[in-house]
Amino acid sequence: MDDGKVNVMSVEMLSALNGALDRAAEDRAVVVLTGTPGVFSAGFDLAVLKAGGEAARKMVRMGFELGYRILSFPAPVVVACTGHAIAMGVFLVLAARGETPLPV
């Protein structure tokens, strides 16, 4: 994940992650999910959350659906967390199977 900032879980990022999982499922591939050096993810896009409304509901729904999808993914999902994982970011770290986050 790399949005050029802190890898927020925006609708765009969540859509891209789901697309990558679709491709991995088709290929029966193991997934390695990582962020940029020092930042895994700062969680949901706070500007969208502050604005509220349908955009915020959609983003939150997509985020938790992604967490569920990772938990139930047919192949291993490994998270390489090299830095901060905040809010929804930590939920994604914890949803991965068989890996324990290393202290940073």
Report on this model:
48% of the residues lie in helices and 12% in strands. The protein has four helices and four strands, in the order αββααββα. The strands form two sheets. It has a two-stranded parallel sheet with strand order 1-3. Strands 2-4 form a two-stranded parallel sheet. The protein is globular. The two termini are 18 Å apart.
Q: Can you summarize this structure?
A:
With 104 residues, this protein is an alpha/beta fold.
Strand proportion, as a percent range, falls in: 5-15%
The CATH homologous superfamily: 2-enoyl-CoA Hydratase, Chain A, domain 1
As a percent range, the share of helical residues equals: 40-55%
Q: Termini distance?
A: 18 Å
SSE order in H/E notation? HEEHHEEH
Stretches with pLDDT under 50, minimum 5 residues: none
Q: What's the story with the biggest beta sheet?
A: 2 strands, parallel
Mean pLDDT: 93
Q: How large is the count of helical segments? A: 4
Could you tell me the radius of gyration in angstroms?
Answer: 13 Å
User: What's the arrangement of strands in the largest beta sheet?
Assistant: 1-3
Look at the helices and sheets and give the structural class.
alpha/beta
Strand element count: 4
- Give the second-level CATH assignment, the architecture: Alpha-Beta Complex
Mass-distribution shape: globular
- Using the coordinates shown, work out and report the CATH topology: 2-enoyl-CoA Hydratase, Chain A, domain 1
* Total number of domains: 1
Q: Briefly, what CATH class?
A: Alpha Beta
